[in-house]
Automatic annotation (TrEMBL):
It comes from Rugosibacter aromaticivorans. GO terms for cellular component: cytoplasm. Keywords: ATP-binding, Cytoplasm, Kinase, Magnesium, Metal-binding, Nucleotide metabolism, Nucleotide-binding, Phosphoprotein, Transferase. The active site is at H116. This is Nucleoside diphosphate kinase. The gene is ndk. One of its GO terms (biological process) is GTP biosynthetic process. ATP binds at K10, F58, R86, T92, R103, N113. GO terms for molecular function: ATP binding; metal ion binding; nucleoside diphosphate kinase activity. The lineage of its organism: Bacteria, Pseudomonadati, Pseudomonadota, Betaproteobacteria, Nitrosomonadales. Belongs to the NDK family. InterPro entries: NDK-like_dom, NDK-like_dom_sf, Nucleoside_diP_kinase. NCBIfam families: PRK00668.1 (NF001908). PANTHER family: NUCLEOSIDE DIPHOSPHATE KINASE (PTHR46161), NUCLEOSIDE DIPHOSPHATE KINASE DDB_G0292928-RELATED (PTHR46161:SF3).
Amino acid sequence: AVERTLSIIKPDAVAKNVIGEIYSRFEKSGLKIIASRMHHLSRQEAEGFYAVHKARPFFNDLVSFMISGPVMVQVLEGENAVLNHRQLMGATDPKKAEPGTIRADFADSIDANAVHGSDAAETAAVEIAYFFPAMSIYSR
Ligand code: CMP
């Protein structure tokens, strides 16, 4: 089925100047960018986005990293978008990511891991709504 997923290019990858390289991988895999914006998250915004991880030991480091610089946030649309995007990203820990994935190629650590992607269609709907009003999404 055609799905949508939320993608974030994290501060490390933005700083490495690989936004275009990552967008190109999305497009070559058939994912369409139907909304996009650069944004420097406040601590409150990052905590809200990652609220499901609030009890985890890595929560504070994760939030501090996510507000260390601007991110690119986009909505991707396509057949099986959630899984397709997760396969392009590779494993959360770049040491475990398959060669040729975004994290294998651009990530330095489990925190500075270049990208975020929704883990399921239901989560994607919540994450997309966190960043984009419906009128700012341009489905084609
Ligand atoms: P992300 O997909 O953005 O979702 C939560 C983030 O927490 C994850 O990517 C990692 O960058 C970060 N993180 C840090 N430590 C861990 C861990 N042990 N397990 C999962 N995620 C972690």
